[in-house]
Amino acid sequence: MRVLACILIAAISLAAQPAFAQADRAAAAFWKTVQATCDAAAAKPAGDVGQRIAQTAIDEFTQFGGHQVDANGRLFHFGLTEAEHEEDDGGDRAASVGRLGWWQVMKYWRALFGNDTADSLEVQGYRDASTVTKETQTAAILRSSAGRLLRAAEAESDPETREVLREAALRAAIIDTPWSAAFISYVVRQAGVGVTAFKFGNAHRTYIYDAFAASAAEPANEAGDRLYRACPLTATKPRPGDLVCQQREPSLADASEEVVRERIRSELGGSAAARTVRRTHCDVVASVDAKARKVYVIGGNVAQSVTAKKLNLRRDLKFSAAQQGHCGGAGSWTLPQASGQPPGGAGHHEKCSLNDKKWFVLLQLR
To answer: For burial by CB atoms within 10 Å, which of 70, 116, 146, 237 has the most?
Structure first.
């Protein structure tokens, strides 16, 4: 009986191998076709839309006064953050609302949700956390919306206190609701792109999957007016206005960029709820310095700011997926973690670069 079972298992395995091999060949053929299209587009200069998207991102970064990260992944200029009033605390002096970090982020949200913005933003709290005094006590999470807090603030009779309460509610919502996709949506919309060309939304995966759908539909000329196609990241030259994207799925922590791309392609035919690559982030390609072999990208909600990063390109001006930077080697960080524990700490050196992410796809302007 045991021998028969082994024979059956071997037979099933042999039968499955041709199916897997056929699927691999189909995937390779698909991405080969996509790469040819991506290469042809990358050989041309960025068009007007790409230039407008890139310039809008630069303008927003400048207006926000955000962080700057060098090619080693080190933050060398700490700028304004989402919850601050202004970068240089002016005490009692009046401030331009354009220098309020939370106000800038609300601008991105309002462009996305309009009059429904406050009710679309979540505010979180922890049960009784404002009154407990023991740090070991656990607290259940509480959820509300900025809109509900704003309506509650209207009960305050003093106008100045009422306004402080309203702003406190908005600042809390800015902190508690991820806004990086809202930033991308704002930049693309400001560049004059319409709703049929780009999936505006509060989650990067919405337009990432749409770009993959465009790549799948292009061979049959059925991609419509979609703005972006999905291109293999490390095989495609970036241009201003393109997007570079990373993923943060725990189940894909050790997966190659090819595996992640194929996962998304395989899920295009299913429902949006069944899509599994959900934790993602994209930055706008703002400028390419071919001489220095660097690319500047700008993203929102990066270290709680609109942040510009300088990333490395290879000699062929294609994206280098390895952006580890240089940390000084093992033993360079000797601060003890806590009382009674050894210096340094597990994992401290391997993630020392703010640019060292799981980059996996370039969304290229079509």
So the answer is: 146
Strands across the sheet with 228-232, in order? 75-77, 68-69, 307-312, 294-299, 280-289, 243-247, 359-365, 228-232
Grouping H, G, I as helix, E, B as strand and the rest as coil, residue 110 is helix
Write out pLDDT tens, residues 95-131. Answer: 788 889 999 999 999 999 999 999 999 999 999 999 9
DSSP, collapsed to helix, strand or coil, labels residue 288 as: strand
* DSSP-assigned letter for residue 225: T
CA distance 192 to 54: 12
Interhelix angle 204-217/2-42, rounded to 10 degrees, is 90
Supply the pTM of this predicted model: 0.89
Q: 10 Å Cβ neighbour count for 217?
A: 15
Domain ranges of the chain: 30-86+98-103+180-326+349-366
Q: Beta strand pairing status for 141-145 and 122-126?
A: antiparallel
Pick the closest to residue 304 from 174, 119, 205 (CA basis). 174
Report the DSSP beta bridge partners of residue 307.
Answer: 299
Whole-number Å distance between alpha carbons of 165 and 170: 9
